[in-house]
Amino acid sequence: MVTRTVDLRSDTVTKPTEAMRAAMATAEVEDDVLDFDPTAVRLEAEIAKRMGKEAGLFVPSGTMGNLISVLTHCDVRGSEVILGDNCHIFIYENGGISTIGGVHPRTVKNNSDGTMDLDLIEAAIRDPRGEIVYPTTKLICLENTHANSGGKCLTAEYTDQVGELAKKHDLKLHIDGARIFNASVALGVPVDRLVQAADSVSVCLSKGIGAPIGSVIVGSKSFIAKARRLRKTLGGGMRQVGVITAAALVALQENVGKLESDHKKARLLADGLNQMKGLRVDPVETNIVYIEIEEGLHMSAAKIVKNLEERGILVMEISSSRIRVVLHHQISASDVQYALSCFQNAVKGGQTENGN
Amino acid sequence: MVKRIVDLRSDTVTKPTETMRAAIADAEVGDDVLEHDPTAFQLESEMAKIMGKEAGLFVPSGTMANLISVLVHCECRGSEVILGHNSHIHIYENGGISTIGGVHPRTVHNNDDGTMDIDLIEAAIRDSKEEITFPITRLICLENTHCNHGGRCLSVEYTDRVGEVAKKHGLKLHIDGARIFNASVALGVPVDRLVQAADSVSVCLSKGLGAPVGSVIVGSNSFITKARRLRKTLGGGMRQVGILCAAALVALHENLPKLESDHKKARLLADGLDKIKGLRVDTSSVETNIIYIEIEEFSGTTAAKLCKNLEEYGILLMQTALSRLRVVLHHQISESDVQYALSCFQKAVNGVQNENGN
């Protein structure tokens, strides 16, 4: 029996659409290392324009987007970067900024809304008078939306405040904007306004926007020129890369408009799950839903995940009592209903066993 | 008037063919980070099998393939790698093994044929008894074909001997095999036999094989597992990467048989160029698809000038020194393109000679 599969593990699972496949097949290409691939140039220019920055650079992944950005801003030995203790760069990028880039991380506590307290950020900035023992703070990184906090949005006001702080101390500001379009849509703020205070932004095309591969870094012309060189050094200089950037251009056209509906589906799912005894869902702002399994249910996340898998619902186990679900444009409203009924089935076991 | 373009700058300029484009459009894909993209898996397995190694890993570029290979073999702090003074890794990869990977390079002189003398390699291996002041040699790198030395081939006998030196001293051997298939075809040696002595090989798909993007690293299962993790760290973990691997699979099947003809075209062009007064080509050293052209002093022109003149005819090539040009043949250069290029060279050089009253 063919199981219906509803893949809610991440928005990275999105597969290229027919229009993307057609675009890839007919893409105009050139050697992007020897010259400039025209389709890559188009994508980079388009994203830069949307973000209100001077230039852009296509890279194979968000990890490389962030790695290049941090290393380019922190290009002097002995640099330090301030970032959230629960941010993607710090937790899920293999510590590359240090192991590969030699940059020291200084973490500041992430609040549950994805922000860091401004006074704590300021306190973390190294006093130059202590330079004999201190690394030199060069950069502050924000993440919008903030993945580990449940896809929470940083407001334009907050971002601007951090920007001012950075300027005051002669630091740069980088935004890990893997899901920046989700933030822009949820807040109703134009994306260029949202990232105005940032010196650089890394934007994923392979997540909710649905392209098969890649991210774009945006920043000033001089920043991007250095970034291009570092991209080559890391091995991200691809040749006829237009075959991929063509898909990304289609993704931009087709799917930014669908993000609002992803957020609606997430809220629908969250509301439904919250009604189930034994589950508790954190407030949902965009397309990410975190589900807490209450103690009273006496069921582990692993058990629920396995049960769901048998019904074709794929989700991510975060801890023994926490599950994550991510909505994207290839999940239909009917898929959401199906997922809800499967969750209901899965937790019923726990509810009945314990006489609930 | 549409200019006829003959792009001889590199075999990286090859554009995807119709079959590749169709394969890209139909590729079966998955999230290669969360699990394993099926088309990537197919390519990696096939490459590993062809190379006689346990496993493979698709990466965005040859630079990343070499970087990962060196860094995985040299995963301990304080490592040193022995490589040719004129090798691609040392000259054209932004010094990444050091600036990114913290590995120290120990260069040994590359001979004209791309080899390094075995006794010089052995002399460069650090004596670990002196460990207080020495880094620790972990790896030897070879390059086959050798790009800067005119695409010359390292024989299987030479490679085996270097492998023995490596084994004798507890070192690993990595082959930068960007153009390893060119070597295999030119030498008439099956590629797995050619790289038998190596612990890892990096193979380009985007050069003579003509795929739009990428390389594959091959090695043992445990090596590739570490390589996969480092690939993620460097930012080379791509999602639905099957679209690129599908094109690479087509490239492997379609264009491997065309390499011999690229070599023939190179020999044809080399012979013709050597006959032009003012140019000199060491035709005996044209073994594969790369030609270096020396501009004789009496010709009255420079590489830069000649390059520019030829560009006006639509012939694109690379200037590598004041009086040196490089030309690379590939499957999208026809025999008629070769003849056209020759006549343009003739015109361009004659033109200068006429200017100078020769």
TrEMBL record, chain A:
Q: What's its EC?
A: 4.1.2.48
| Listed cofactors | pyridoxal 5'-phosphate
Q: Which UniProt keywords are given for this protein, alphabetically ordered?
A: Lyase, Pyridoxal phosphate
Q: Which InterPro entries match?
A: ArAA_b-elim_lyase/Thr_aldolase, Low_specificity_L-TA-like, PyrdxlP-dep_Trfase, PyrdxlP-dep_Trfase_major, PyrdxlP-dep_Trfase_small
The keyword tRNA processing is annotated on this UniProt entry: no
Q: Which residues form the Aromatic amino acid beta-eliminating lyase/threonine aldolase domain?
A: 7-294
Top enzyme class: lyase
Q: Which domain of life is it from?
A: Eukaryota
| Keyword set includes ATP-binding | no
* Segments passing through the bilayer: none
A matching Pfam family: Beta_elim_lyase
Q: Name one GO molecular function term.
A: lyase activity
Q: Which family does it belong to?
A: Belongs to the threonine aldolase family.
What is the protein's name according to its record? Low-specificity L-threonine aldolase 1
Tell me what organism the protein belongs to: Stylosanthes scabra
UniProtKB/TrEMBL annotation, chain B:
Every Aromatic amino acid beta-eliminating lyase/threonine aldolase domain range: 7-294
Instruction: List the Pfam families.
Output: Beta_elim_lyase
Record carries keyword Lyase: yes
Q: Which InterPro entries match?
A: ArAA_b-elim_lyase/Thr_aldolase, Low_specificity_L-TA-like, PyrdxlP-dep_Trfase, PyrdxlP-dep_Trfase_major, PyrdxlP-dep_Trfase_small
Output the Gene3D superfamilies linked to this UniProt entry.
Answer: Aspartate Aminotransferase, domain 1 (3.90.1150.10), Type I PLP-dependent aspartate aminotransferase-like (Major domain) (3.40.640.10)
Task: State the EC number(s).
Answer: 4.1.2.48
Which GO molecular function annotation, any one, does this entry have? Answer: lyase activity
Alphabetically ordered keywords of this record: Lyase, Pyridoxal phosphate
* Top-rank taxon, per record: Eukaryota
Requisite cofactors: pyridoxal 5'-phosphate
> Which PANTHER family does this chain map to?
L-ALLO-THREONINE ALDOLASE-LIKE PROTEIN (PTHR48097:SF15), L-THREONINE ALDOLASE-RELATED (PTHR48097)
What protein family does this chain belong to? Belongs to the threonine aldolase family.
Protein name (database record): Low-specificity L-threonine aldolase 1
